[in-house]
Amino acid sequence: MKPAYLGIDIGSISTKGVVIDADNNILADSYLWTHGNPIAAVKNVLNELSRKMDASYTVVNTGTTGSARKLIGVALNAKVIKNEITAHAMGTLAVVPDARTILEIGGQDSKIILINNGVVMDYAMNTLCAAGTGSFLSSQAKRLDLNLEDFAELALSSNNPTKIAARCTVFAESDLVHKAQIGHSKADIVAGLCRAVVLNYLNNVGKGKQIKSPVVFQGGVSKNAAVIREFEKELGMPVHVDNNGHLMGALGVAVLCKDEEDQTPFNFNITDVTFETKGVECSHCPNNCEVICVYKDGILLDAWGNKCEHGTQK
Amino acid sequence: MTQEKIACAPQIGDYQVIANILISRCLGYKTIKCPPMTKRTLELGSRHSPDMICTPFKTTLGNFIEAAEQGANVFIMPGFGCRLGLYDILQQKVLTELGYDCEFVTLFEYIPTVRRMFNAMQEINPSLTQEKFDEVFALLVQVTLDMDGLAFFMRKNMAFAAEKNASQNPLMATYKSYLQEIPAAEDAEAAAKIGEKYRAQMESVPLNKPAKPIRIGIIGEIYIVVEPFSNCNMENWLADNGVEIIRHSSLSDFATAIFSVDEQIKNSGGYVDYNIGSTANDAISRAYEMIQEGIDGIIHVKPSSCSPEITAMSILQNISQDTGTPFMYMTFDTETGEAGVHTRLEAFLDMIKMRRPKGDYQQ
Predict the structure, then answer these.
(1) FRET pair for A187, CA 20 to 30 Å: which of A243, B182, B192, B304?
(2) Residue B219 and residue B158: Cα distance in Å, rounded?
(3) Torsional class of A124: left (φ above 0), alpha (ψ -120 to 50), beta (otherwise)
(4) Minimum distance, in Å, between the CA of residue A41 and any CA atom of chain B
(5) Contacts of B9 (CB under 8 A, 6+ apart)
(6) What residues does each domain of chain A span?
């Protein structure tokens, strides 16, 4: 039996899974929508991975990342539960060892990671506001009655992007409506939106950071060729987008699993087990902490979310 | 019949202890602590505040509303500084409109000097003598210095307490007992004795501290730095994850910092040559000092829309770029989701660990 490592990235929009061998080669991968049900999504991802995987490998350790990393980590007994920033950096370095800058724009957050000699030197993440992320582009696409694929294509056809206020999504939206009503073409407006996303990102997330080549661009928005074009124009350097860019978080935790001393073989039969979660509101004080309890086949596995000792599970 | 005066200071870390000593001894008022801050405090404070005002206005207003519900009718505010200097006037208006009959004690009028504090106290209580005030003031100085000294020691060592099983960190437990005991201290001398006792107790807590632990500095706007509810308990998270915390910001630091801006400018390595306002110059010079002492990383915190600290940030970015020291900037408003804060802290800590030779921070 050859050892393999499982990494799962459970994001707000999509759930990604990879199985790698000891040399970081991807043996199987899966990419599905989360649809607001991370446990069901992970079961589907696991089913797909187990179908695709070569039977001569055994998964000897598991890691999770993404916003549901804790919930799924507990359910799967994962030994590595890592934040998505570290995971993305590790995954990217496994594929592009000389990367210096990682730009990432996801569904509701965006970040920048600066690397020197394979070591993360600096990073930043959007803080209070989700302006200029994927959800902004998809809501504007809906407003203009376009699907996301046509959106990028239409944007690329324009050489004259309309200027759209980039600082804030709400202002951008009213600016967009105004520009449309005074007669700017749809193609120019769409190109302007892509440009606004880039300017917003560089002004907020990338503020004060020195972006050095090679630059790798990831996250859902990296599938939009028009945004890539605007980044290259603005930075004056090539921007690499890997076909597996969406898998980097999952790959990163799988890579981290290899170094973990505590190795726990993974059984794909877990998809037959029922997991249940229950949110209980602790009413001891006006904090009303939401305590999450996770049950495996009816037995309480873990609980968290309480801010003080009063909130310990009922 | 006149109503009994019940005074209350806002929750700013543990400093209600200090305000209550001052008010009870100089004015003879009964003092209470406002109820510990919760989501309800934030909701009440935000609902009755202008949306774009700085966060501490909202949270301290929430404190006052909850204290008024418990009978408090005298509120304490410093009355100088940035926008902070005008909080009392606006908050009194809001509270009056909400139907709470209350008065405010403004400790200083625009300029923080001991003289002005005495004047403010004497105006309310004409029988207060200079001698009595001096005695109380000496006590306040002693308590503030002891308290901040204990807390500084605690932050540096909390992560390394050998006894991990206790429900509360033994250093934290010692500090809390000090806060319990100190309000009864008769004078500065008695307070110093209590301080010494707890200092000895703290220093005797067994530690397992590596030779070169990960050290993270915390700088920024003083309210958010010292008020754990407002910064999502950042320091506890760092301590739980094995970090030595270097944080100078405290009431005693603040009291000297506001009078030593020239010195701070001199100690900023030439990165800033003017007074930015509030404690922004202190943040910059502290950051510069920590870097000279080989800090691993610095976290800068501020409330949303705090202009002095926003100015400091661009200067800190230059320092970060030139020295290669990683900085993380955190802005807090009235959100209570801790997950996002913990994600960022964990990533910052992972990054710092990767920059160090493998595992050297554990030996």
Answers:
(1) A243
(2) 19
(3) beta
(4) 21
(5) B15, B16, B19, B20, B23, B31, B34, B75, B76
(6) 2-92+249-272, 98-240, 275-311
A132-162 core/surface letters (b: 16 or more CB in 10 A; e: else): bbbbbbbebbeeeebebeebbebbbebeebb
Closest approach of chain A CAs to the CA of B259, in angstroms?
31
Q: Give the number of other CB atoms < 10 A from CB of residue A116.
A: 12
User: CB burial class (10 A; 0-12, 13-18, 19+) of residue B201?
Assistant: middle
pTM, two decimal places:
0.85
Neighbour-count burial of A53, counting CB atoms closer than 10 A to its CB (0-12 exposed, 13-18 middle, 19+ buried): middle
Q: Each residue's pLDDT tens digit in chain A (314 positions)?
A: 889 999 999 987 889 999 999 999 999 999 998 888 889 999 999 999 999 988 899 999 999 999 889 889 988 889 999 998 899 999 999 999 999 999 998 877 788 999 988 888 888 887 656 666 787 888 888 888 888 788 889 999 998 998 887 666 677 778 888 888 898 999 999 999 899 889 888 888 887 788 999 999 998 889 899 999 999 999 999 999 988 888 999 999 999 999 887 788 888 877 777 888 888 777 777 777 778 788 888 888 777 777 666 655 44
Distance from CA of A310 to the nearest CA of B (A): 12
Please name the member of A83, A128, A207 whose beta carbon is closest to the beta carbon of B346: A83
Residue with tokens 């059984």: A267
Q: Are B216 and B243 in contact (CB under 8 A)?
A: yes
CATH number corresponding to A2-92+249-272: 3.30.420.40
Q: What radius of gyration do chain A's Cα atoms show?
A: 21
ipTM summary value:
0.75
Range A98-240 classified under CATH 3.40.50.10300: no
Q: Going by CATH, does the domain composed of B210-363 fall within 3.40.50.11900?
A: yes
Separation CA A101–CA A98 (nearest Å): 9
Domain B6-128 coded CATH 3.30.420: no
What is the 8-class DSSP label of residue B362? T
Do the Cβ atoms of B76 and B23 come closer than 8 Å? yes
What residues contact residue A25 under an 8 Å CB cut-off, 6+ apart?
none
DSSP structure string for A106-124: -SS-EEEEEEETTEEEEEE
* Residue carrying structure tokens 């964990």: B346
Q: Where are the alpha helices (DSSP H) in B218-301?
A: 222-226, 234-240, 251-257, 261-266, 280-292
Sketch the domain layout of chain B as residue ranges.
6-128, 139-209, 210-363
Do A86 and B350 count as a contact with CB atoms less than 8 A apart?
Answer: yes
Cα A160 from Cα A191, distance rounded (Å) = 8
